[in-house]
Design a protein that fits this description.
The chain is an alpha+beta fold. The protein contains twelve helices and four strands; from the N terminus they run H-H-H-H-H-H-H-E-H-H-E-E-E-H-H-H. It has one domain. Strands 1, 2, 3 and 4 form a four-stranded antiparallel beta sheet that branches. The model has no long low-confidence stretch (mean pLDDT 82).
Length: 275
């Protein structure tokens, strides 16, 4: 009995949200920007396009590395999106971790900016009016153990002046919303184009508690931000990873996912052809 493999395009064409994402954005057209990764990725037998598309799927569907491995193995939409036929071998979970390290936040940032520039060139994002906001990104907490370690080391308390010495995430800092809602992690700063609803800029920062806040200004901002609450509310409030660089990668990917979903709603012509 002969064994035949087959392409999945006919099964996916026009029937899956990933079809629309690929049609509008066309990840494959920007792969040339990351040719320097070919040597590192090639050792695994999978290309840059597989790595970038799999990374997108991971954040679009909020999957762990092992969950992504399973979905890519059995989900026809995932297989087609990443360029696999029905029976080709797909990556295991270790590939995704290695690829994230190879990409790093700088290259993921380049991908985010490429999509933004193409949206601007197409007249979708006009960048006339913007709304910016900051949201807490809470890192995995072991602060009680770290507090005990600090106090046994002679510290009076665990705070931003000594947290780097004792924390499992030496980049994270304490923050406070209001007078009593403390959190440990980072601040994600998001700038949204008010015309299109697309994210134009995003960054993770280290910042101590703000002093002398203008409460009247905050109230005014709260009034005009209502239409954009859905943008900020969809961001992950927990850090997937530790260290500032990895959290920045997370924020870039979440912004890319948001922009992709928004572009599907806007339904422009293909953006990335010739990018």
């Amino acid at each position: 009995m002969a064994f035949y493999d087959y392409d999945l395009t006919d099964q996916i064409s026009g029937q899956h949200e990933l079809w629309e994402i690929e049609r509008i954005v066309g990840f494959s057209s920007v792969m040339y920007r990351f040719k320097d990764l070919e040597t590192g990725v090639g050792r695994s037998g999978f290309g840059i396009d597989v790595g970038i598309k799999a990374l997108y799927l991971q954040f679009h569907y909020d999957l762990s590395d092992r969950e992504l491995e399973k979905r890519l193995r059995f989900d026809l939409g995932f297989r087609w999106f990443c360029g696999f036929t029905a029976f080709e071998t797909t990556p295991d979970h270790t590939f995704f971790c290695r690829f994230r390290k190879l990409m790093g936040p700088q290259r993921v940032g380049q991908l985010f900016k490429a999509i933004v520039k193409r949206s601007q060139k197409a007249g979708i994002m006009r960048s006339v009016f913007r709304f910016a906001d900051a949201t807490a990104v809470i890192t995995k907490q072991t602060t009680w153990e770290e507090r005990d370690k600090a106090m046994s080391g002679g510290e009076a308390a665990l705070n931003n002046s000594n947290i780097k010495k004792y924390s499992a995430d030496s980049d994270a800092r304490f923050g406070c919303k209001g007078k009593s809602k403390f959190w440990f992690g980072y601040k994600g700063h998001v700038s949204v184009d008010m015309g299109s609803g697309l994210i134009e800029r995003i960054a993770a920062i280290l910042k101590n508690n703000m002093k002398n806040k203008n409460k009247d200004l905050d109230r005014w901002r709260s009034g005009i931000r209502a239409p954009f609450e859905s943008v900020f509310s969809k961001f992950e409030r927990r850090a997937r990873y530790r260290t500032l660089a990895k959290v920045q990668l997370q924020l870039f990917m979440e912004a890319i996912v948001h922009n992709m979903k928004r572009l599907v709603q806007i339904n422009p012509p293909p953006l990335m052809i010739g990018a």
